[in-house]
Design goal:
There is one protein chain. This protein has two helices and 14 strands. About 10% of the residues lie in helices and about 50% in strands. It has a single domain, classed as lipopolysaccharide transport protein A fold (Sandwich).
C-alpha cells in the first residue's frame, strides 16, 4: 500500500511553474541559432529521449544561463548546456538543466537538476530524467524520472525515488505529489524511517548508512 504524508507549503508548485515559464521565455532572450533547413539530428540524445521528443528544432541555444530578478533580488537562475525549441510542437528539450529559485518571503532556496528534460508548452507539462536531484531546506530528493502534469497539478517521481530530511527518509519505486492538497503518496517497495524524539538530528547519517534509533515504517 502507498503511504501518505503532507508537504509543507507549495514548494513543488512554485518550482514547476518557475521552471516551465522561465525556460520558455528565456529561450527567446538568449543567444539562439536557427538551423535553417538542416536535417533533424538523430544522435544518441534523441534515442535516449522519451516518446514524442523533438524531431527537429527551430531555435538552438548552447551553454545558456538565464537570470530573472525583481526589486533588486534574483528570483531564479537557470543553466543548461543545450536547449532546443520546436515551435510547431511547442516543446523544448534541454541538456543538463539546473534550476535555482527562491520562494516565499523568506526566500528559501529550491534547486533541481537532471541530465535531460523536456517542456511541453501546449500541455503545460515538464519531464526531467536521468539522475534527477532536488533540494529544499532540509529536504533532499532524487529519482530517475520527474513528471509534472499541469492539467492534474501533480508531480510523479519514478525509479529509485528517495526523499530525505534529517528526521525522516522515504525510499520507494514511485512517488506521487498532489500540489493542490500537498500530499505525498509513495508506492512500490516503500521503506520509511522516522527518528524518535531523543535522536540528535544533526547526527543522522546520510542515505545508505546505518540509521540511528528510530521507528521504521
Amino acid at each position: 500500500m502507498g503511504r501518505v504524508m503532507r508537504l509543507p507549503g507549495k514548494t513543488w508548485a512554485a518550482l514547476a511553474a518557475i521552471f516551465v515559464g522561465g525556460l520558455l521565455v528565456g529561450l527567446f532572450l538568449s543567444r539562439g541559432e536557427r538551423p535553417g533547413g538542416e536535417e533533424p539530428k538523430t544522435g544518441g540524445k534523441e534515442r535516449s529521449a522519451p516518446a514524442g521528443a523533438l524531431g527537429g528544432a527551430d531555435i538552438v541555444a548552447q551553454d545558456i544561463e538565464l537570470v530573472q530578478g525583481k526589486g533588486g533580488q534574483v528570483q531564479w537562475r537557470l543553466r543548461a548546456r543545450n536547449a532546443e525549441y520546436n515551435q510547431d510542437k511547442g516543446r523544448v528539450m534541454v541538456v543538463k538543466p539546473q534550476m535555482l529559485s527562491y520562494v516565499g518571503e523568506e526566500r528559501r532556496e529550491v534547486y533541481i537538476q537532471a541530465e535531460r528534460g523536456e517542456i511541453d508548452q501546449q500541455g503545460d507539462n515538464l519531464t526531467l530524467w536521468d539522475r534527477v536531484e532536488g533540494r529544499y531546506g532540509h529536504f533532499a530528493l532524487s529519482a530517475e524520472n520527474f513528471d509534472y502534469i499541469g492539467a492534474m497539478n501533480k508531480v510523479f517521481l519514478r525509479g529509485g525515488v528517495q526523499v530525505r530530511r534529517p528526521d525522516m527518509s522515504i525510499d520507494a519505486a514511485a512517488v506521487e505529489i498532489d500540489l493542490t492538497t500537498r500530499e505525498l503518496v509513495a508506492a512500490g517497495g516503500v521503506s520509511a524511517f522516522i527518528a524518535s524524539r531523543n535522536v540528535d538530528l544533526d547526527m543522522l547519517p546520510p542515505a545508505g548508512q546505518a540509521k540511528p534509533q528510530g521507528t521504521a515504517q
